[in-house]
Design brief:
The complex is a heterodimer of chains A (146) and B (147). With 146 residues, chain A is mostly beta strands. Chain A is built from 1 helix and 10 strands, in the order E-E-E-E-E-H-E-E-E-E-E. Chain A has one domain. The relative contact order of chain A is 0.18. Chain B has one domain. The chains are: A mainly beta (146), B alpha+beta (147). Chains A and B meet through strand 1, strand 2, strand 3, strand 4 and strand 5 of A and helix 1, strand 1, strand 2 and strand 3 of B.
Chain lengths: 146, 147
């Protein structure tokens, strides 16, 4: 979750980069959350995630985060909602070995972050601009061939 | 597996075959794991919420931003061969997944001075909710955020 002063995507403009870090396994920016944080109604093509005060590392910018550089402790809270924009697609990617049904989706997010000497509040969810969102039910790895 | 159920939601998915013994085996290690938990496990896990206690394993190498290979495919650009990139960060996974890239605006506050300023954001976030083979080689149920 990246914050910028000025245009997004410009490394020199980035001020905060929140993630749970990358453990030795390489698992990428992934952390366990309570089961009831996620609600999926797949037949309706909708899903939501709501979490509060997740412990994160603030690496300042994405390059430092990827290089495992110094970080500061921070927390984030967010509520995200997926809503399908069409019918589900049955897809199989034999190269990367995942398969399932997937919706292209709308998405809204409202979120906040806190760190030492800093706080952030996003504007209301309806103002967020979705560039790409996918909701799916998938199998990969050892479950790919089931 | 029937993917066309209406309201094939979270509660139903988690209610699928998971014996009491399996469930207790999964959750009994939460307290012990918390003592050395990395950030992939949230600090509020002790509140009694069901939280995965065994780390999942990553997908294979995806892209390499700044020349650094990572176990991840961003939602954009689409790399093929299908019309979406692998949305999961977890391999040996069977379940629901969501991913997004979203932008927006907000307000930053210097909490030492109270000064506020406009801030822009880009967020690549997602979730994974299902069964997975953990680092211990066993099948577990878990809910994860990609942050």
């Amino acid at each position: 979750m990246d914050l910028y002063r000025g245009a997004v995507g410009v490394l020199a403009n980035q001020r905060h980069d929140f993630s749970p870090g990358i453990p030795a396994s390489g698992l990428f920016w992934t952390q366990a959350i309570p089961q009831d944080s996620v609600e999926v109604h797949f037949g309706d093509g909708v899903a939501s995630v709501k979490v509060s005060d997740l412990a994160e590392e603030d690496a300042g910018n994405v390059l430092n985060a990827l290089q495992g550089g110094p970080t500061k402790p921070a927390t984030v809270s967010f509520e995200m909602r997926w809503a399908a924009t069409g019918q589900p697609m049955a897809l199989t990617d034999p190269v990367h070995r995942f398969t399932g049904e997937f919706f292209v989706s709308d998405l809204t997010i409202q979120w906040s972050a806190k760190g030492e000497g800093f706080a952030f509040e996003s504007d209301p969810a309806g103002t967020s601009v979705n560039l790409r969102a996918v909701l799916g039910r998938e199998r990969n790895g050892v479950f790919f061939d089931e | 597996m029937n993917l066309n159920h209406s309201h094939l939601g979270h509660e139903h998915f988690w209610a699928r075959p998971l014996s009491r013994r399996q469930f207790l085996g999964t959750t009994a290690t939460v307290a012990g794991a918390l003592a050395t938990s990395p950030l992939w496990m949230p600090s509020f896990a002790s509140a009694g919420d069901r939280v995965a206690s065994v780390a999942p394993r990553p997908i294979g190498i995806g892209v390499a931003p700044f020349g650094i290979p990572i176990h991840h495919f961003p939602p954009l650009p689409v790399l093929g061969p299908t019309v979406i990139n692998e949305p999961s960060q977890i391999t040996d996974f069977n379940g629901f997944v969501g991913i997004t890239r979203v932008r927006g605006t907000g307000t930053g506050t210097d909490t030492t001075t109270g000064t506020t300023h406009p801030v822009n954001f880009q967020v690549d976030n997602g979730f994974m909710d299902g069964v997975y083979v953990g680092e211990d080689g066993k099948v577990h149920r878990g809910t994860f955020a990609f942050v």
